[in-house]
Amino acid sequence: KFSNCNGKRKVQYESSEPADFKVDEDGMVYAVRSFPLSSEHAKFLIYAQDKETQEKWQVAVKLSLKSTLPEDSVK
């Protein structure tokens, strides 16, 4: 989830992969559809723009799988 620093800015978010990921107005990133996570889906950009000042930012998002099992039980 993305949040703006002072809470007063009106920020518009956009994903570089809109067919796979969206960002709600509150900054929550979510997958648009179900798909197996692979290297082709593991990276995308989020663009943000202040609606008043037109200031822009971008951040690279990299997804990775993390096992919830102890390391010695993961094969």
Automatic annotation (TrEMBL):
InterPro entries: Cadherin-like_sf (IPR015919), Cadherin_pro_dom (IPR014868). Its main location: membrane. One of its GO terms (biological process) is cell adhesion. It is found in: Cell membrane. It comes from the Eukaryota. Gene3D superfamilies: Cadherins. Coiled coil: none annotated. SUPFAM superfamilies: Cadherin-like (SSF49313). Keywords: Cell adhesion, Cell membrane, Glycoprotein, Membrane. One of its GO terms (molecular function) is calcium ion binding. Residues 1-65 form the Cadherin prodomain domain. One of its GO terms (cellular component) is plasma membrane. Pfam families: Cadherin_pro (PF08758). This is Cadherin 2. It comes from Canis lupus familiaris (Dog). The lineage of its organism: Eukaryota, Metazoa, Chordata, Craniata, Vertebrata. The gene is CDH2.
